[in-house]
Amino acid sequence: MKAFIVQKYGKKEILTLAQEPKPIITENEVLVEIYSTGINQLDTKILSGEFKLILPYKTPFILGHDLAGVVSEIGSNVIKFKIGDEVYARPSDNAIGTFAEFLAVPEGDLALKPKSLTMEEAAGVPLVALTAWQALVEIGKLKKGQKVFIQAGSGGVGIIAIQLAKYLGATVATTAGKASFHMLEKLGADVLIDYKTQDFESVLKDYDLVLNSQDNKTLVKSLNIVKRGGKVISISGPPTPTFAKEIGASWIIKLISSLLSSGIRRKAKKKGVDYQFLFMRADGKQLEEITKLIDNGIIKIVVEKVYPFSQTNEALNHVARGRAKGKVVVKIK
């Protein structure tokens, strides 16, 4: 099968197109023929080497964290899927490799693809939607009448998170460029802040929850708009000792995580705010709940651009620039 490989880490490195053996599945896995794959900031960060401490993949390896495709083979213990099913997934960290024509995916990571979406649309959903779900529902426990600040509203996570927060009954504030305001209003954003000309810290006050996806300076400022007892959940770091423990990291990674996050944890504690780092995980059951919201028209998917498989590196560069409005997808079949 054709696949795009990380040969070595580096900010200027690109993926190499290669011929790889088709995966052999275990009894608990499903072989998926991949039709489309979504591109994420996580892919660019792994390629650059930024996440080597958290995700120490040994090169060479196949990159990619989102897929939509068709089941072509099932393991002997698999009961939820059959050959020919249209599925989508964000595979577990130890099972990534969606920049390829086939992938062996653990059964628990998969869900049936939303019937209302094309393969290209579905491929852009799993990672960002699971991130939004785990931040707002699982950790944030967002309730009706609360206020949430979702940074970078026109990004992949932001678009889903805004719609999910509105479905949960929250008032939603977000940052974006003015060109995206109309789209974000239609998706449910109540308070729109132009990040180029406005400072969210002077606009927002007494929020219950912040979903931080920006730099450390923005993270520190976010503490100032949250009321005591509120939460700040960051998907861009810094990681915490709790996170390091959850992933079974070595003592040195636990120590590094403690040092990296000590400042923000201290500031949050002083203000009576709960700070947590979220590195989303694969979860087929949560993806099933997201599928229902999509097929019921509650969550709409925004795809900015679809690239052919041969232009996977160009798609990665597009996402790395950080200006995509919606998802960037690669069509493999």
Task: Characterise the protein shown here.
It is a single chain. With 333 residues, the chain is an alpha/beta fold. It has 2 domains: 2-125 and 301-331, Alpha-Beta Complex (Quinone Oxidoreductase, Chain A, domain 1), CATH 3.90.180.10; 127-277, Rossmann fold, CATH 3.40.50. Helix content is 31%, strand content 26%. The protein has 10 helices and 16 strands. The strands form 3 sheets. Strands 3, 5, 6, 7, 8, 15 and 16 form a 7-stranded mixed sheet that branches. The longest helix has 21 residues, at 251-271. It is globular.
Which spans have pLDDT < 50 for at least 5 consecutive residues?
Answer: none
- The total of helices stands at 10
Q: In CATH, what is the homologous superfamily of the largest domain?
A: Medium-chain alcohol dehydrogenases, catalytic domain
What share of residues are in beta strands? 25-35%
Count of DSSP strands: 16
What is the terminal separation in angstroms?
12 Å
Q: What shape does the CA trace take?
A: globular
Instruction: Round the Cα radius of gyration to an integer and report it.
Output: 19 Å
Structural class: alpha/beta
In the CATH scheme, the class of the largest domain would be Alpha Beta
Main sheet summary: 7 strands, mixed
The CATH topology annotation of the largest domain reads as Quinone Oxidoreductase, Chain A, domain 1
CATH architecture of the largest domain: Alpha-Beta Complex
SSE sequence, one letter per element: EEEHEEEEEHHEHEHEEHEHHEHEHE
Q: What's the structural domain tally?
A: 2
What is the overall pLDDT average? 96
Instruction: Estimate percent helicity.
Output: 25-40%
